[in-house]
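Aim 2, interim progress: modelling of the nicotinamide-adenine-dinucleotide-bound target.
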Amino acid sequence: MNKFDYMAKYGYEQLIYFYDKETGLKGITCIHDTTLGPALGGTRLWNYASEDEAVEDVLRLARGMTYKNAVAGLNLGGGKTVLIGDPDKVKSEAYWRAFGRYVQSLNGRYITAEDINTNTDDMDYIAMETSHITGLKKTSGDPSPFTALGVYWGMKASCFEMYGSNELKDKRVLVQGVGQVGYNLVKLLVQDGAKVFVSDIKQVKLDRVASELPVTIVPFGNIFKNSYDIFAPCALGAIINDETIPLFKFKIICGAANNVLKEERHGVALQNAGILYAPDYVVNAGGVINVFQEIIGYNSIEATRKVEKIYGKVLDIFKIAKEKQITPAQAANHLAEERIRVIRNIRSNYIKR
Ligand code: NAD
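Predicted structure of the complex, ligand included:
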């Protein structure tokens, strides 16, 4: 589809290309919707096969941030940046500072943070040139423990919905991907007495978690063989698809990975299979809730309290889904769109300045 037609169809505001000859910085920022506040979304550094692939990714990710921020109750719009390049080759102080100057030139319409292949060291360089940045070491730091905490509360809410009790004790939970979020999630599950099964493509990640915590390693390639109460995808998107759904022997799916439903219809397929799905962008909002706290004055206790509210949010979504006879994923989208619509409407009143 033509880019302007696509932007019109999904309500995008801005798509910005930038290039710095000296450092080879090459990127695209997308601002989807700023009704609720400045567009916040991380910067992803990826060796995209083509420019079209990068544009497609940034458009999809920026819109996803609008929905995530809206449902999380944050006064933030949705945006994202993708940088095109090899993460092992392009990084330097000048590269990040050149990027920081582009962020600054957007005058606060876009606020950046970490994403895939960008870390707190990179953010420190970017922050030398812009004030429109979050996720800094000196303030909120690594968002992963907060993301894991949100997934944990989403899981408890899902248990309440499915079993009438939010207890995780003795629940069999399969965690796919024990990286930054998965590892922290496993810690919380073990504390609650859940029986945790883990899978990862990297042996080093499995070794770390297995040496510290009582978990069972599930051989890679065979992860859907057994039945579990809960599946927590914490690795890849699109894991819920035509091939995997027939293999699922779970009651609940609740994890950190973004865009786990390959297509919207897979949410319907889960519902038909009697599997309760806690929408990904609702339960994985802990990280962005934590960085938002940085914008309004960082306080980790307050950030934790806000992340715990994901519990109530997930229950609200299940309630809306039942009332409207739609899937939880559709109910989450409905909640986001309603919040944006209502706030846009209250701002239409004239106030003399
Ligand atoms: P990470 O890279 O630290 O961890 C991902 C882990 O998944 C790695 O250990 C990797 O080896 C493993 N993995 C990759 N493919 C796999 C496969 N096929 N099977 C099993 N394991 C596999 O990433 P992370 O920061 O922990 O994020 C996990 C997911 O959550 C990502 O999809 C990310 O987009 C999403 N997310 C993360 C945050 C955050 O705060 N870090 C916030 C929101 C969403």
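The first helix runs from residue 3 to 10. Residues 143-144, 147, 176-182, 199-202, 205, 234-236, 256-258, 284, 287 surround nicotinamide-adenine-dinucleotide (CB under 6 Å).
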